[in-house]
Amino acid sequence: DMEDIDRLSRQVPHLCKVAPSTQKYHMEDVHRAGGVMAILGELDRAGLLHNDARTVLGLSMKEQLAKYDIIQTEDEEV
């Protein structure tokens, strides 16, 4: 319900705006910056994912992020 959506939207950081694309930013920019796995990696580092959940690849989200998340720094300036 809307209360759940409101509660979650206050907890989850705004990482990027990609929909709709603008004249300045496009979906290709998300891909070049690491794609969905980079976004999921940021959510995981913020403690906002249940990383023990299994994905369609049969891996846990934690295992999948270790394999595919290209951002491997703790520097918040990245």
Shape: globular
Count helical runs: 4
State the end-to-end distance: 35 Å
Secondary-structure-derived class? mainly alpha
Q: Report the helical percentage.
A: 40-55%
Order of helices and strands: HHHH
**What is the alpha-carbon Rg in Å?**
14 Å
Give average pLDDT, whole number: 80
Keywords: Lyase
Organism: Vibrio parahaemolyticus
Protein name: Dihydroxy-acid dehydratase
GO molecular function: dihydroxy-acid dehydratase activity
Compact description:
This protein is 45% helix and 0% strand. The chain is mainly α and 78 residues long.
Structural topology:
Blueprint: H1 2-11, H2 27-32, H3 35-45, H4 61-68
Q: What attributes does this structure have?
A:
mainly alpha, globular, Dihydroxy-acid dehydratase, 78 residues, 45% helix, 4 helices, lyase
How would you describe what is shown here?
Residues 1-63 form the Dihydroxy-acid/6-phosphogluconate dehydratase N-terminal domain. This is Dihydroxy-acid dehydratase. One of its GO terms (molecular function) is dihydroxy-acid dehydratase activity. This protein has 78 residues and is mainly α. It has a domain at 35-71. Helices cover 45% and strands 0% of the residues. It has 4 helices and no strands. It is globular, with a radius of gyration of 14 Å. The protein starts with a helix and ends in a 10-residue tail after the last helix. The model has no long low-confidence stretch (mean pLDDT 80).
